[in-house]
Amino acid sequence: MKLVPQSIIFGALATTAALFIASATLVGGQAPAAPAPARRPAPAPATPAPAQRPAATGPRAQMAEDVFTNITVLKGVPADEFMASMGYISNALAVNCTYCHLGDGGGGWPEYAKDNDKKRTARRMILMMNAINKENFGGRRVVTCVSCHNGNIRPKVTSNMSVYYSVPTTDEPDAITRQAPGAPSAEQVIDKYIQAIGGAQKLAALTSYVAKGTFLSYGEADPGRLEIFVKAPAQRAEIRYGGSTTVYDGRNGWHAVPEAISPLSQRVLNGAELDGARLDAILALPGQLKTALTAWRGAIPTALGDADVQVIQGTTASGFPVKLYFDDESGLLLRQIRYIEAAIGRSTWQYDYSDYREVAGVKIPFKWTFMWQSGQSVVELTDVQPNVAIDAARFTRPAGPASEAPAR
User: 26 and 135: one domain?
Assistant: First the structure.
């Protein structure tokens, strides 16, 4: 195992935190599918951010209070960012939505709006957290619920002494500050990756593919069916029948889910989520990976399980770091970590890739696990058809989530 010099990487750690949950339900049953303009500015990243994405024009972004009722503290927050905050809270406390939102009234979105003691305490804690950040950190979001809760319903006030006298564990760093001495550059790591998957010439010859497979969501017993459509240079559509549909057309992105899964059933991607959809499309055919991000840093050596890896970091147009983990021996991409801004903290999205197989001379992962604040899903491909003609309609805004898979 290769050790990482602690001075090279850091995570933004805080000293105090809060429990906070806001209550919500839909206004009129379903959120309108209006395009979402540019987000509120993200907090300053650890490194200077590149030029921001131009502000979108069109209708005003839907705020949480436009979509939900009984919003008191988190007013003025974009509705999709509000929902990301709910996932952030769930993950930070290691609970699910029902811990705060469902009571004697049963299920359904109207139940989520009802007040209870947990929500009233949560609102006070949000105000406390905001005051701590304002008074001590110039308003920067340094203190979040994770700072103290970190997977516990109640913050710990005593120490577990055995932790201090056992093998130490390290948390995932938020950002790479500089390249480790003697490590390859980010450009060298990417070049090795392109060569490992088949080389630039074969990659350029693979201009599209259609994949079929399955997805298994966290807590589900049976997998669902999916299709993925990919076209160079950066178009991708992933259809999870009975689940979500995510489309990126090379410039714009959309996400649709059944209303039973999320009250924001149809929305336009923007900010860090749009940047992430673009990166996923490029990684599907990664010939343009070097230009997908800016301000590349690294590499730094570390380990994923038994595999020694080189970690590099780039920056999205929204100013967020993205870390890519490449197997030091094979050169293949094993992990992607990126961040999504929520109203109360920065959420982590993690993809772990495995089971690489050749498709038209190019190795692509046939399995990946996606973990984020609100759950986990596992995708496994069963069939990939290369260089097929794909109808342009596949990369347009979806009318809604697909409920049934086509006959095979």
Answer: yes
